[in-house]
Specification:
Helix content of chain A: 25-40%
Strand order of the largest sheet of chain A: 4-3-5-2-6-7-8
Radius of gyration of chain A: 17 Å
Order of helices and strands of chain A: EHEHEHEHEEHHEHEH
Largest interface: A-B, 66 and 66 residues
Oligomer: homodimer
Amino acid sequence: MDGYRILEIKRSVFENNDKDADRLRQQLKKDRTFLLNLMSSPGSGKTTTLKKTIAALKDEYRIGVMEADIDSDVDAAAIEGTGAKVIQLHTGGMCHLDADMTRQGLEGLGDEDLDIAILENVGNLVCPAEFDTGSVKNAMILSVPEGDDKPLKYPLMFTICDCLLINKIDVLPYFDFDIEECSKRARRLNPNIKIIPICAKTGEGISDFAAWIKAETAAWIG
Amino acid sequence: MDGYRILEIKRSVFENNDKDADRLRQQLKKDRTFLLNLMSSPGSGKTTTLKKTIAALKDEYRIGVMEADIDSDVDAAAIEGTGAKVIQLHTGGMCHLDADMTRQGLEGLGDEDLDIAILENVGNLVCPAEFDTGSVKNAMILSVPEGDDKPLKYPLMFTICDCLLINKIDVLPYFDFDIEECSKRARRLNPNIKIIPICAKTGEGISDFAAWIKAETAAWIG
């Protein structure tokens, strides 16, 4: 800590979007739709996790997925055919979604007849954490190859998430990743965070995530 | 492409920062300092790659490293003791660095007696690609576990980088990652991109990256 300086660079001021987010949640409550905001780094396995999770939930719930991306449609194409409604949202270069963008997405999806809407946010551990999308709950994925130090480096993301999926546990033998240590770091920021180790590729742990979504949906739509 | 809609969401307008970037490059030229901007997702191995690269270059060059992060100092602590000057930049939540922030960092580092300055940008494949930092060259790391589809999903990042390091090639047997396919996708966006497969952990390929930096530094400082 002695050999280098820490320089505080000024950040730009974002518009306050909290009012929009609260208004959207009120609408979702009225529509009896549970909205989950799923976040992670690029390549952590959001889309594969969603595919497996939809398969576990689709017989019981009407599900809609919003795939947010800069400008590709790789993810929506992957979700198509899973039994969920899907829409690709292009953010035009934006690194996150805010509540108004999410509202546009839900409108495009037609949320009025959905039990569960899932927003796959842009792959990014920074900006999406700063904007309330109007979601009922936030979940994030951290994959084993990314390293167990991520709660130290992206604390806000771990603080605002209700559920942390630790993905790619099949490759634990090939990486220095300590699940216990990572969980401790996450819980230090967020004592109530639900932590679920999964392997989206094999489906391991997906039933636990699906059970969490079911319980949260029941709590929301009553 | 038929089963879902693509909705274009409006992006906010960023301030034009190109003039600041050009001014910074002119200053770097005068100071005979080569500035490299290194970008990647969280957990791709930027810091480990830098440590190994500094070891390969430090006997020949005076090197300074700017570690940009939201608010931790994990990375600067890791670089300390490598023989490079290091400064931790806190972005106060910002997801990228622009030219003026980079200038502040260089000032903090004291760039006037450096041959090579390296900016480790915030872990993010989106926003850092949109802001010219004033760097002479841009490099990025894509790690094998992130997937070979990333050029399709983050095209701007691959377009603006002069050098692409494909890291963690030691775990290729455990992931579906096709280096040839990934390289083709990157070259479709950026035909002149230099692609170097590496394993930062074992040091494989680092000498090729160091040789690229040497050649680019020589071309810049003459």
